[in-house]
Amino acid sequence: MKFIRQKLWITLLMVNVASILGGSGSPQTRIPDVHYEPTPQLIVEELLKMAEVNRNDIVYDLGCGDGRFVITAAKKYGARGMGIDIDPKRIKESIHKARIAGVMDRVKFIEGDLFETDIREATLVALYLLPELNMQLRPKLLKELKPGTRVISHEFDMYDWQPDKMGRLGRNKYYFWVVPTDVAGKWCWSLSSAKGEEQFTLTLAQKFQEIDGKIKTPVQTVSALEAYLIGSQIGFLLRYRPPGLVVEMRYRGQVNGNTINGTVEVNAGPFAGKHKWTAKR
Length: 281
Known about the structure:
Blueprint: H1 2-21, H2 41-50, E1 58-62, H3 68-77, E2 80-85, H4 88-101, E3 107-111, E4 124-127, H5 131-144, E5 150-154, E6 165-169, E7 172-178, E8 185-193, E9 196-207, E10 210-216, E11 221-223, E12 225-230, E13 233-240, E14 247-256, E15 259-266, E16 273-280
Parallel strand pairs: 1-2, 1-4, 2-3, 4-5
Antiparallel strand pairs: 5-7, 6-7, 8-9, 9-10, 10-11, 12-13, 13-14, 14-15, 15-16
Helix pairs in contact: 2-3
């Protein structure tokens, strides 16, 4: 009886070691986080269309499965792509399908952990993970991806990071985001009038791409209207009332660190017309 218990213990130990090493005997960081289930090809097509993929894009698929996102992006739109999956079977399958599709010169597949992969060169990231994995991955996306990089996801959202677009096809849901730049804080600029340089201040609060703020004008402090942030593109409407006038200023600009460069169109008053606009934080 003692011999049988010892033999059972040795067998269980061997099973545990094998599960750590994997079938080939080479160490694996960990097992896949999700059961493999491919995104329907029609949803792949819809997501790539929503993201407006083009030949200048570098598409990263995190948990690439059989590689269909990057293969489709390369074959249909001429984009380049990188697929990452922790399962070596999926990587072999992806490479095989890329060869058949004739896009091996534009795509690459690597066996690796998506949480440890360098994704900084991506212009589009594709996901089909679980909600909790999306949330674990979200800080990495926001930290490493350049503002303006697009993120698409089949089925699962990003909790309180609201999508810029979403769609549904049958029972399938899909989502689209644009990584926003940081604009929170106080921005200052001046405009020339007959009175000289007049000062404006915009104080912005930000939650992902959602922005809201107050603008201090030479006359009064008002709310910024129709404010939007898409990647590093910002815009808002300033409406205020100097004596006898209703002045509307529509601002559009590109954020680059602590500077916004763009234009402002003014309907009336001492600033009427279209002008270049620069704000500093």
